[in-house]
Amino acid sequence: MIEFREVSKRFADGTLAVDGFSLQIPPHSTTVLVGSSGSGKTTLLRMINRMVDPTEGTVEIDGEDIATVEPVKLRRRIGYVMQNSGLLPHRRVIDNIATVPRLTGVPKAAAHERALELMDVVGLDRSLARRYPNQLSGGQQQRVGVARGLAVDPNILLMDEPFGAVDPIVRAELQQEVLRLQRELGKTIVFVTHDIDEAFLLGDRIVLLETGGRIVQTGTAEEILAEPANDFVAEFVGAARGKRALHEERIGDRTVLVDGLGQPAGVLDSEGGSEAGG
Fold first, then answer.
1. Where exactly are the structural domains of the chain?
2. Neighbours of 196 (CB within 10 A)
3. What is the Cα–Cα distance from 220 to 204, expressed in whole angstroms?
4. Would you identify the CATH topology of the domain 2-242?
């Protein structure tokens, strides 16, 4: 379990990014921190692996104050996936994935074998192992980033807006990969996004933040949609103004579900169920 205890962060320029944040993150599930810019979500995520240290308060992992753990040692046992993958451009795919195992003393042959296994896990063809990052598509690069994050079999996987830079089709594919991986591996995932639809799709638990890391509401997607805590939440999740209210429209011989913004959300099959959803 990850626990934040009255955590605050004030940067050198005086910016108060997080103010008195407390939260318990349960193991073996996906917790999504969601909010607009300035809500402190990335700062909070980076406190978990000590890329950012709090000004006040403590962060604990399984009861251990991580301030007592050497930062590099801590990071090598926590997976981290970022936007734009953060791959080393001069190293081949197989070596990018094997980076942390090699740093922790795993022999090259064993690290490479593990890297190839992880390529299978994240849906990458092994034929890409000898390519460089610039020879891959954006979606492939992000899959390499996920494989690298899993390379030391961490209990905790941090994902900082990992799919924000890819196109919507690839993003949807990668989101499904995260769901599949979590079903199979059962990691403790902390996922940061500004996209409420992504949060609702991926999160077992959603933590909705306002400026300064103030928690406005936590819960499942269903709980938040059913009972928004206030007008801010209702507006943010699209419950206000009927954005998520669906109605049927007949197009040709198909019945299409359309949301309050006029966007198609799915198609009803002949049995009355939804074939696809947005």
1. 2-242, 245-278
2. 21
3. 6
4. Rossmann fold (3.40.50)
